[in-house]
Write a structure and sequence with these properties.
This protein is an alpha/beta fold and 394 residues long. Helix content is 37%, strand content 19%. It has a seven-stranded mixed beta sheet, sandwiched between helices. α4 packs parallel to α9, α10 packs parallel to α12 and α11 packs across α12. The two termini are 31 Å apart. 49% of the residues are buried.
């Protein structure tokens, strides 16, 4: 039985996998079991920030593995303290709670926001406003926060207390803010719905409303954070001052790690016993995070912005491309009359890996990708789309 058949036999059928078995990678390339190479524009859905087999990250992991791989949060471990210190120094946060995933980070932020409101205003102030087309995770509560009806089925009852408003619609936002509102939770760039940035006007209005009414601002940076958009967190480019920030994906560089960042207003909201985790703050994952965070500097941010603009310039000239949305190396491509998954499948056959987000293409390449690698991949994508033009489909 080959590996793909074993996968279908033994692993739950929750993923519509592409027929590809990856066995190793280096830099921006991965290799399948037939030793064919693929230029990767996915980074493992935004995780492998500095590509595959990153030497600095691997050396840190190997050294820590020889010392302590796990200890539990009953004791202090140095890698977790160092990773938390780096996050606070670079973001201005005051405290960090480590998790294992983006969904867990968002759960933690939601719990913290509700406790903050309960402590000050009582149980009636518990609603959290989120934005239509958002995506915050796949647990019951983060699905409830996710304002996409396609996810609100099969698992009823969903967690109550979430109010959904239209993104970039000031009128809809103001009509739904009231005395029950505990927090407003946003992605400044909505990744899973096609890489859709908020307008500056709308983001600024949210900040103003939150500060005027003592409503907490939660920013979900699970996909857009850790240098992906050309700053440590994307919200910085909007001038926002959040109270809670969630992150994950690239934070661990390939090991499961997420975090909730607490700023001045929320730094003491959790006390002993209010929240917990067995694996959060794992020494191996946190050593990896230290390797990643130490390299998140201004020169990297400038490089990400430059490469993102270069990629966008390529994409806007391609056939069947209606629009391109982009912030750093987080890029969405709207296609005209083509099925995005079919395009991705054709690209796999040509040796490049892309993502989809709804009916859009999505690109999240490693930040180390070169202009030459970008040009190579874009030539292939251009050929795929040009051939699709002549066939009217892919």
């Amino acid at each position: 039985m080959n590996l793909q058949k074993q996968d279908a036999r033994f692993i739950a059928h929750t993923y519509h996998r592409y027929p590809l078995v990856l066995v190793k990678g280096k830099g921006c390339y991965v290799q399948d079991e037939q030793k064919r190479s693929y230029l990767d524009f996915t980074s493992g859905i935004g995780v492998n920030l500095f590509g595959y087999h990153d030497d600095d990250w691997m050396q840190a992991i190997q050294a820590q593995l020889a010392q302590l791989s796990h200890s539990s949060n009953l004791y202090v471990n140095e890698p977790a303290v160092k990773a938390a210190e780096l996050l606070c120094q670079k973001s201005g946060a005051q405290r960090v709670f480590f998790t294992n995933s983006g969904a867990e980070s968002n759960e933690g932020a939601i719990k913290a926001a509700r406790k903050y409101a309960h402590d000050r205003y009582g149980s009636e102030r518990s609603e959290i406003i989120t934005l239509c087309d958002s995506f915050h995770g796949r647990t019951i509560t983060t699905l409830s926060a996710t304002a996409q009806t396609v996810f609100h089925q099969h698992y009823m009852p969903f967690t109550p207390g979430f109010v959904h408003v239209k993104a970039n619609d000031p009128k809809d936002l103001l009509e739904h803010v009231n005395s029950h509102t505990a927090a407003i939770m946003i992605e400044v760039v909505q990744g899973e719905s096609g890489v859709r940035p908020l307008t500056q006007e709308f983001a600024s209005l949210i900040q103003q409303v939150c500060e005027q009414r003592d409503i907490l601002l939660i920013v979900d940076e699970v996909q857009s954070g850790i240098a992906r958009c050309g700053s440590l967190f994307a919200y910085e480019q909007y001038g926002l001052r959040p109270d809670l920030v969630s992150c994950a994906k690239a934070l661990g560089g390939g090991l499961p790690l997420g975090a909730v960042l607490f700023f001045d207003k929320t730094k003491d909201v959790f006390q002993y016993g209010d929240h917990g985790t067995t694996f959060g703050g794992n020494p191996l994952a946190c050593v990896g995070a230290c390797s990643i965070l130490r390299r998140c500097q201004s020169d990297l941010y400038a490089s990400v912005k430059e490469k993102g603009a270069y990629l966008k310039a390529w994409l806007t000239q391609m056939p069947h491309v209606k629009s391109v949305t982009q912030m750093g190396l987080m890029i969405g491509v709207e296609l005209d009359h083509l099925d995005a998954r079919a395009v991705v499948e054709e690209c796999i056959g040509r040796g490049i890996l892309l993502l989809t987000a709804k009916q859009r293409l999505r690109l999240l390449p490693p930040l180390i990708i070169t202009r030459e690698e970008i040009a190579y991949g874009m030539h292939i994508l251009h050929d795929v789309l040009a051939q699709a033009s002549s066939k009217s489909t892919v």
